[in-house]
Amino acid sequence: MIEVEGLAFAYPDGRQVLFGVDLAIARGERVAVLGPNGAGKTTLMLHLNGILTPGAGSVRVDGVPVTAPNMRDVRRRVGLVFQDPDDQLFMPTVGQDVAFGPANLGVRGADLAERVREALAAVGLDEFADRAPHHLSLGERRRAAVATVLAMRPDVLVLDEPSANLDPAGRRELAEVLTGLDLTLLMVTHDLPYALQLCPRSVILDGGVIAVDGATVDLLADEALLAAHRLELPFGFDPRYSIAKSTGLMP
Ligand SMILES: Nc1ncnc2c1ncn2[C@@H]1O[C@H](COP(=O)(O)OP(=O)(O)OP(=O)(O)O)[C@@H](O)[C@H]1O
């Protein structure tokens, strides 16, 4: 579904951030992108729907090159959810925000209403269509931002630090929404337990390259590996025990 090959990128000020990223993600996979501050995670994410253009290398989505002529198709297929929901919610009501993307694609009338209803239901905000986004909690706003993207019926959902600043209940509610979606999912996060809960596979991006790619539980159980990439588990968190417990192998 996603094929990134030899992706290199420097910002206009000359700062080189990506140095040849290779990453292949199959349809339906859920993958976490881990790594220290400044590793280039957001920069990588912004290439997946063409907000940034590679200096070298290529990005393809379901075989379609992420290049200017294909941008409309790519932007429909790949939905980006930014860390700050206020970057995505700018209309007077949540329903209008969710309708905005598909309306731009030419969806109208009953079809548009159905898309809005479906997207809000998918994130558990059925009753929120007429509410003003700025009256919602952060957790509700982040789920509303996910709905604005789901309304486009994308193939891929890319999320930048989805659990950041959420309270435990908001964090769990969003996890329930995300695990219930039948989509390819790529999630940038510093929240290692969240990566373990949502994504069977993780990659560590460090120094602008994919340094490690493997099963999330194996990566998180490797203390030396985590330390080498400035990653730390919360106090007392044991990834193998958490997985065993969640799969019923432990009481
Ligand atoms: N518009 C920009 N112009 C110049 N440099 C930038 C720009 N945006 C980001 N950078 C730099 O690129 C590097 C990678 O940034 P990026 O946001 O991709 O990292 P990240 O891994 O997502 O970090 P974090 O975990 O802190 O969110 C950083 O050193 C950052 O300062």
Automatic annotation (TrEMBL):
Keywords for this protein: ATP-binding, Cell membrane, Membrane, Nucleotide-binding, Translocase, Transport
GO molecular function: ATP binding; ATP hydrolysis activity; ATPase-coupled transmembrane transporter activity
Annotated ranges, domain ABC transporter: 2-232
Subcellular location, record wording: Cell membrane
Domain of life assignment: Bacteria
Database matches in PANTHER family: ENERGY-COUPLING FACTOR TRANSPORTER ATP-BINDING PROTEIN ECFA1 (PTHR43553:SF24), HEAVY METAL TRANSPORTER (PTHR43553)
Family indicated by similarity: Belongs to the ABC transporter superfamily.
Protein name: ABC transporter ATP-binding protein
Species this protein is from: Parafrankia soli
